[in-house]
Each structure stands twice: as structure tokens, then as C-alpha cells.
């Protein structure tokens, strides 16, 4: 049966453990310079409605390292967005390629791709979810803490990256507190699903309270891609949620990147030795290779 990952909880807890184990093994093989062409001859179509540095480059180089090939399909490269329906795109791509990765605005567009594709579809970020980021985040936490016996405080917007992390944290057994301004919490469906998966996070509007017992502080941009019109309103709402040297203390900083220095995080914090963000970015590569070998 074709498996899709439109969000992290399309994987079972056992699947998640399998993907992370594959990621660690592949990372070690990269470090030892051992070739690993496990997807030799395979092609991955990569649909991008939004810009990307990490997702695009990690998937493309990941496929190359696995002996396969990736096709970058931006908004002006294919008929999708120019009149061809998602379901037709899904069926046609499935006749050519072995997997599809899609970064789209509307989460429903990625689930529709998955509904009609006969090859695995992976969500590379929607307005609601970012499961590939969660895989890399869990890998990074496990490397740093030797497991998931760690406490994480999310400080910032409760949208896509946060929502997938909330579910992934529940699956992994991380202790999580989410601090957002009022009105920017993760949605109810995410919190209900996290409860089913192992435990909903504590949710607060107080960043200082959230970080009090935390080992890790995780933040994300205040103005996500596609929200440019809400910029003034969001900057005002997030006043007081910046991760500063004072708020971080000696805790580990996580950020999915790109970072907007001077908004959600200060330059000093990002440049400090507490920042795990470069490991997180690298781990996108290894985590997604683990996922691709699991799915394809
Ligand atoms: N974190 C992340 O997905 O980065 P990009 O937008 O650069 O892909
Ligand atoms: N929340 C951010 C994440 C970018 C990887 C956005 O959606 O733009």
C-alpha cells in the first residue's frame, strides 16, 4: 500500500522510530564517506508554491546521495496553478516518478495530492504542518539529550512548525509547553490529536513561565510565508515573545530557520553556542533520507 506523510502522525510510533533509526544510520554512512545508493534510479518530484532553502536543497541533495534524482518544480514550471487540477497533476506525476514532495499553502492541497497519487506524497510545509521539520527536530533532540527525556518550551507562533512539533513531541514522549500570544495557539484539532498520541502540551500565553523548567527553547518566525499582509498586526501581537539572552539562559535554542533576527530571536542568541539550529538544518537531510528510504 502506498504510504503518504502529510503530517507527522501519518507515521505510527514504530514508523517514527524506524525513520529516525534509518536517519542515524544514513548520517553515519555520510560521515564515513560510504556510498549508499539505496534509491538508485528513483525520481522525486518536488512541487514548490513557496520559497525554500533547506527543504529544497536537502531533498535534492538527499536524492542524489541515495543514487536517485529530484526534479525542482516551481510555480511557473508546471501546469498546476495555471489551470491543471491537483488530482490530474497527482495522477500524471505518479506515472513518471517514484515519490512527490510538495510545499503548498493550503494543507488540503497536499492531502488531495496524496488522495490521487499512487506514489508516496510527503508534505514539505503547508500553512498547517511541517512534518519533515519535526523529524529533523526529534533527531536533533535525541542527539543532544541521548533520548527524549527532555523538556521543551515552544515560544512564538503556534502555526505549522509548532503544530507538527506538538504531535511529534507527543509521539516521542517529550515534555512540552507551548507559549503563544492569545489567539495564536495551536488549533484544537492539533491539541486533541496530541492528547490521543500520548499527551497534549501545556499551553500558556506567558513565555517566562513556559521556559522556567525547560532544557530547550524552540521558536519560529512571527510572519510566516503568505502572511506578509498581517505583518504589522503580528509584530504587535508577538511583542514580549522574542527569545533573548535573558529568556534563553543556558538552555538550548532551536529554530527551524529561516530566522528573522531582531524579531522572534536576537542575533546574539542565534550566534551563541546554545544554538542547535545548524544541527537541525543539517538533520533535515538525514531525516528526510531516512523517510524517503522508508516510503520509497
Ligand atoms: N525550515 C525550513 O523548512 O526551511 P526552508 O523554508 O528554507 O525550506
Ligand atoms: N512558519 C514558517 C516556517 C518556515 C519554514 C513559515 O510558514 O513561513
CATH architecture of the largest domain: 3-Layer(aba) Sandwich
**Tally the helices: what do you get?**
12
Nearest-integer average pLDDT: 98
- Helix content, binned percent: 40-55%
* Name of the CATH homologous superfamily of the largest domain: Aspartate/ornithine carbamoyltransferase
Biggest sheet descriptor: 5 strands, parallel
Query: What proportion strand?
Result: 5-15%
Q: Report the radius of gyration as a whole number of Å.
A: 18 Å
Elements, N to C (H/E): HEHEHEHEHEHEHEHEHHEHH
- What is the CATH level 1 assignment of the largest domain? Alpha Beta
Structure characterization notes:
Keywords: Cytoplasm, Transferase. It comes from Halosegnis marinus. By secondary structure, the protein is an alpha/beta fold. It has helices at residues 13-31, 54-65, 86-96, 107-116, 131-145, 160-172, 188-197, 207-211, 231-237, 245-248, 267-270, 277-295; strands at 43-48, 69-73, 99-103, 121-123, 151-155, 175-179, 202-204, 216-219, 252-255. The strands form two sheets. It has a five-stranded parallel beta sheet with strand order 7-6-5-8-9. The chain has a four-stranded parallel beta sheet with strand order 2-1-3-4, with helices on both faces. Bound molecules: phosphoric acid mono(formamide)ester and norvaline. Phosphoric acid mono(formamide)ester is lined by residues 52-55, 125, 133, 256-258.
